[in-house]
């Protein structure tokens, strides 16, 4: 397929130039001095309110940077197009807006965002109160069992608007968290698209026959729940609304009060939007609900996706309407999207602020043991040089085919650091933190965040001693961190399967590391017969999931390499 034409310069610079353009046109915004991917209010926070942060991959504009401003967000973190921002960018935003009243981070429910924002929050100590609120309003894939939960879609905008108004009024941290989680429980969104989107410098992300439309697609071009013949606007709205109001999440009843948001996914003309507004309102009036507020516009896009999503919020608290009606000044929340209401730019881009670990910490081990650890790391690096092509092949069955490439980039960086004597192999706790940072910096994305979380959590096992018991604890702590933020469980066909098997075997009274590795290898091979319920593979058909999971096989391979190179 041919590359889609777009008004960009260098596709690799598109995110940075987009941010700069947003800030140049809006004097109420500025770019953080500590990170060029963080957008802040121009006036620094001094009023002691609860600070609010959101973000994620770019390509969804105006979300999230377009909602920075009075009455909404204090900061937005912008990743690459359709890619989660690294945790050090999130950490920079947290430090920029830290306040004694607390900081709340809102994350649309995608694995990479959960992991990277979670990793940043684990490292953040600038406010006495901080928490993550996951936004998961998708109703399209209710029939599939996803451990990661529902996807986050345009309903996030309504939730953020309420949170922003609460913060402006000085509502306490705990009440904002409680209210927004309640809103999430009463929020549902369903999308439909006639044409696929395309990344800058790339062809369309997927092939959709001219006579077809896709119901329930995600905002990154992920598959929806059904492909069906494209029909009239009225028939399309009927299909969307019936699934939405009858979803298990909403289960809407007559006479209930609702807020409705019709969202343009990127390239739907205003003529079409007006027609769709008519159809949605008439359908809801016929159904018999009370439309308390109706918003229509471009709130959360999928680049140039030619589609729309419809969000319904069940109003279980009248205060929510008052917060939605409260004044706000930000580029993405405009008068045209509030039909029920009357309605200094420092842009020098600087490098992201580093987060050094400082002096080596944790227990110091013997030179002999440190040499053995270095040998083990080199063994892992050597194994990945031989195995990365196979990992790419396995990953290509259910993902984007880069599992081997991403891990190879990390192991080559590790090997280079070993060659320069930059790794503190005689202090395991500090070493694990260094390895965590390598994965975060070099790999990035979901894979980088997963390994960074695992290694960072595992490091805590080596604070005061280093033995077989601490190694078993490190495995356990690493697994727990992945499960906490990634939401995957044993049996979901992910890297959690071999890790879980290894942790279970390592807990036996008479521990054998050979047995631990063999347990991990068996669990990795068994993923070939499982249906993916977490990660990107969970959005693919079960027919493509007929070989072992690449991430699981990667874990088994580095465990085997570590064992064989240190025995």
Detailed description of the structure:
This protein is α/β, with parallel strands linked by helices and 567 residues long. It folds into three domains: 13-183, Dihydroxyacetone kinase, domain 1 (Rossmann fold, 3-Layer(aba) Sandwich); 187-325, Hypothetical Protein Tm841, Chain: A,domain 3 (2-Layer Sandwich); 367-566, Alpha Horseshoe (Serine Threonine Protein Phosphatase 5, Tetratricopeptide repeat). The protein contains 16 helices and twelve strands. The protein has helices at 14-25, 87-97, 111-123, 156-168, 173-185, 233-245, 270-287, 319-325, 367-398, 403-419, 428-443, 445-459, 468-486, 496-506, 513-526, 550-566; strands spanning 29-31, 38-41, 51-58, 75-81, 103-108, 130-135, 187-195, 212-215, 226-229, 257-264, 290-297, 306-314. It has a six-stranded mixed beta sheet, with helices on both faces. A six-stranded mixed beta sheet has the order 9-8-7-12-10-11. Helix 3 links the parallel strand 5 and strand 6. The model is unreliable at 336-356 (pLDDT under 50). Catalyzes both the phosphorylation of dihydroxyacetone and of glyceraldehyde, and the splitting of ribonucleoside diphosphate-X compounds among which FAD is the best substrate. Represses IFIH1-mediated cellular antiviral response. This is Triokinase/FMN cyclase. Residues 371-564 form the DhaL domain. Residues 10-333 form the DhaK domain.
């Amino acid at each position: 397929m041919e590359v889609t034409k777009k008004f960009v310069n260098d596709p690799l610079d598109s995110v940075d130039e987009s941010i700069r353009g947003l800030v140049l046109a809006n004097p109420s915004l500025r770019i953080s001095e500590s990170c060029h991917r963080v957008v802040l209010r121009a006036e620094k926070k001094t009023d002691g309110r609860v600070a609010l942060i959101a973000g994620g991959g770019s390509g969804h504009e105006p979300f999230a940077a377009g909602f920075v401003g009075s009455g909404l967000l204090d900061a937005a973190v912008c990743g690459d197009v359709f890619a989660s921002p690294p945790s050090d960018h999130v950490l920079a935003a947290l430090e920029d807006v830290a306040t004694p009243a607390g900081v709340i981070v809102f994350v649309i429910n995608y694995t990479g965002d959960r992991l990277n924002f979670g990793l940043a929050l684990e490292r953040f100590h600038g406010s006495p109160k901080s928490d993550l609120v996951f936004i998961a309003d998708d109703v399209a894939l209710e029939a599939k069992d996803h451990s990661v939960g529902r996807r986050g879609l345009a309903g996030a905008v309504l939730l953020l608007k309420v949170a922003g108004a609460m913060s402006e009024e000085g509502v306490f941290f705990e009440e904002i968290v409680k209210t927004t989680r309640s809103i999430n429980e009463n929020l549902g969104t369903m999308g439909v698209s006639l044409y696929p989107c395309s990344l800058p410098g790339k062809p369309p992300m997927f092939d959709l026959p001219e006579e077809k439309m896709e119901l329930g697609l995600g905002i990154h071009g992920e598959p929806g729940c059904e492909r069906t013949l494209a029909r009239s606007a009225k028939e399309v709205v009927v299909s969307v609304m019936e699934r939405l109001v009858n979803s298990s999440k909403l289960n809407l009843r007559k006479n209930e009060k609702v807020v409705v948001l019709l969202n343009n996914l990127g390239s739907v003309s205003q003529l079409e939007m007006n027609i769709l507004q008519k159809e949605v309102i008439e359908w809801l009036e016929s159904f018999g609900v009370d439309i308390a507020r109706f918003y229509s516009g471009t709130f959360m896009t999928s680049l140039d996706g030619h589609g729309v999503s419809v969000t319904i919020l069940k109003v279980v608290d009248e205060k929510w309407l008052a917060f939605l009606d409260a004044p706000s000044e930000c580029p993405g929340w405009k008068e045209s999207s509030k039909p029920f209401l009357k309605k200094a730019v420092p842009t020098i881009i600087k490098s992201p602020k580093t987060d050094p670990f400082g002096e080596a910490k944790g227990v110091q081990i013997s030179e002999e043991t440190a040499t053995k650890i270095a040998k083990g790391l080199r063994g892992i690096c050597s194994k990945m040089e031989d195995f990365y092509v196979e990992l790419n092949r396995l990953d290509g069955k259910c993902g984007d085919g880069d599992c081997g490439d991403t891990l190879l980039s990390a192991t080559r960086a590790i090997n280079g650091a070993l060659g320069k004597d930059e790794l503190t192999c005689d202090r395991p706790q500090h070493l694990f933190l260094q390895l965590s940072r390598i994965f975060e910096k070099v790999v990035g994305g979901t894979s980088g965040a997963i390994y960074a979380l695992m290694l960072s959590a595992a490091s805590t096992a080596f604070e005061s001693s280093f033995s077989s018991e601490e190694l078993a604890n490190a495995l356990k702590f690493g697994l727990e961190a992945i499960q906490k933020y990634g939401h995957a469980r044993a049996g979901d066909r992910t890297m959690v399967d071999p890790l879980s098997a290894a942790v279970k075997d390592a807990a036996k009274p008479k521990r054998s590391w050979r047995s631990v590795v063999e347990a991990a290898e068996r669990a990795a091979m068994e993923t070939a017969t499982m249906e993916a319920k977490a990660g990107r593979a969970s959005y693919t058909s079960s027919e493509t999931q007929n070989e072992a999971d690449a991430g699981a096989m990667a874990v088994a391979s580095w465990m085997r390499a570590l064992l064989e190179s240190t025995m």
